[in-house]
Amino acid sequence: MKSETRLTLLELNGLVRELIEMEMPNEYWVEAELSECRESRGHCYMELIERDDRSATPVARASAKCWASKWALIRPYFERTTGQQLRAGMKVLLQVNAQFHEAYGFSWIVTDIDPTYTLGDQARHRQEIIRQLKEEGVFDLQRELQLPLFCLNIAVISSQTAAGYGDFAAQLADSPFDFHTHLFPATMQGEGVEQSIIAALNRIYSYKESEPLCEFDCVVIIRGGGATSDMSGFDTLALAENVANFPIPIITGIGHDRDECILDMVSYKRVKTPTAAAAFLIDHVKTVYDTLDDAQNRIAHYAQQKFSTLNAQLLTVSAAIPRLFSVVKTRQEARLTQLFSRLLTQVQQKVMGSKGRIEVFEQRIPMIVERKLTSERHQLELVEERLKVLDPKLLLRRGYSITLKDGYALRDPQKLQKGDVIKTIMEKGSIISEVK
Questions:
Q1: Residue of 110, 35, 118 lying closest to 78 (CA atoms)
Q2: Three-state SS for 182?
Q3: For residues 138 and 266, is the Cβ–Cβ distance under 8 A?
Q4: Which helix (H) or strand (E) covers residue 269, if one does?
Q5: What angle do CA 338, 343, 349 make, to 5 degrees?
Q6: In this predicted model, what pLDDT tens digit does every residue of 225-253 receive, in sequence order?
Q7: Which of 114, 266, 359, 386 shows the greatest Cβ crowding within 10 Å of its Cβ?
Q8: 91-101 and 27-40 as β-strands: parallel, antiparallel, unpaired?
C-alpha cells in the first residue's frame, strides 16, 4: 500500500463530516418512537427506533441529541401542549439535521418537536384503549354501581405526603359527619403510577380479610397537585381495567378541569381536585341527611294531621254515644222482653209436657213394682230350693261325714302329717283325731 493513500482516523472522520455537511445540509422531519429519553446537564439524549408494523420488530435505530439551548425552549412548549413529558414508548415527529463529529461519531441533532403529532398519536392510543374497554363490556361498569346512602368509610389512594390528601382529610374532618378514611399510599406521578395504583387497589380488595369489620363504601383516588405532564400514567389499559372491574364505586380527583384521562372516564365519578372529591362526599351524605330529615318532618306532620282527624272523629263519636246508647238500650230491652216471653212460653210448655209424662209414670209405677216384686220372690224361692239341696246337713243325714283340718275341708289325705289334729263332723256329733 502506498504511503500517500494512508489517512489517520481523524482525517477519515473529517472527510465523512465534510461529505455529510455537503450532501445533507438540510433539516428533515422524521417520525420515530422513543426507546430511551434522558436529560444530562441541560441536554436531552434520545434513542430512536422504528418497528415493523406486523411483528413489532425493530427495523431501524438511531441516536439523537437536543442541545440545552434548544431543549430549554422545546421542552416547556411540548409539555404544555401535550400535557406529558417525553418518555420511552412515545411516538414523536422530530426536526433533525445530520451531524458527524470526528471524536463522537454520527448523531441526529434535534432542532424542533411537533407536539400535535404526539397528541394525535396519544389520541389514537386513548381511543384504542377506550374501544377495547367497550368491547370487553367494562367501560360503564362503575357507573352501574350505587354509592351507599351513608358513604362514610373511605379508602384513599394518594401520596402520603401530598398536600391534596391533607386538604381532603381536613375537609372531611371539618364536616358535621363522622367520616373515616384509610390511606393506601401510592405513586401518583412518574413511571410507576400504573403498577402502584393497581397494587393499592389490590390491597383495598383484600383488606377486609385482615380487618373483617371494615367495609369500605367507596375508593377515592386523588393527586395532590403535580404537573399536567404527569397525567400519562393514568391513561393505561391495565389501570383502566382494574378500576372498571372494581366492586365498589371509585371517585377520581387527579386532574384539572380541562384534562380528562381514561381513568376518569371509567370511574364512578370524576371531580376536579381532592377538595372537590371531599365536597362531593359531604354533599352526598348531606343530601341523604336532608332527605331523611324532610321525611321525618313529613311523617311528624302527617302524624299530627292524622291525630287531629282521629281526635275530631273521637269527639263526634263521644257526643253521639249517649244517643246511640239510648237507642241501643231501648232495642235491647225490647229484644230481652220478647226473648223472656218466648222463654216463659217454652218453659210452660215444657213443664206441661213433663207433668203429663209424670202422671203416666205415677200410674204405671205400682204395676211395674208389683211385677218386679213377684219376679224377685220367684227367684228367691228358686235360690232357697237350691240352697236346701246343697245344705251339708242333708249329706250328713245320709251317712256322710266331713273332715276338717285347721277349719278347712280335707279332700286329700296325702296332705296330712304325723301329729296333725283333724275334726270329723257327722250327723249327730263330731270326733277329734290325731294322725299317728
A1: 118
A2: strand
A3: yes
A4: strand 269-270
A5: 130
A6: 555 545 667 878 888 899 999 999 999 98
A7: 266
A8: antiparallel
Between 115-136 and 237-244, two packed helices, what is the crossing angle to 10 degrees? 40
Using the predicted structure, report yes or no on whether residue 122 has a pLDDT greater than 70: no
Q: For 7-122, which CATH class?
A: mainly beta
Measure CA 332 to chain center: 63
Using the structure block, give the residue that is written with the C-alpha cell 208389683: 370
Q: Answer yes or no: pTM beyond 0.85.
A: no
* Residue 149 DSSP symbol: T
pLDDT at 388: 76
- Return the number of other C-beta atoms located less than 10 Å from residue 409's C-beta: 10
| Alpha-carbon gap, residue 436 to 433, rounded angstroms | 9
Smallest CA-to-CA distance from 165 within 155, 175, 178, 151 is with 155
pLDDT tens-digit readout, 248-306: 999 998 865 555 788 888 899 989 889 999 999 999 999 999 999 888 889 988 988 99
Residue 232 buriedness (CB in 10 A; 0-12 / 13-18 / 19+): buried
The structural domains of the chain, with segments of one domain joined by +, span 7-122, 135-287, 394-434
**Consecutive H or E run containing 8:** none
Instruction: Give the whole-angstrom CA distance, residue 217 versus residue 292.
Output: 19
Between CA 121 and CA 103 the distance in angstroms is: 36
* CA angle at 162 for the pair 206 and 180, rounded to the nearest 5°: 45
Dihedral pair phi/psi, residue 314, rounded to 5°: -65, -40
CB 254 within 8 A of CB 263: yes
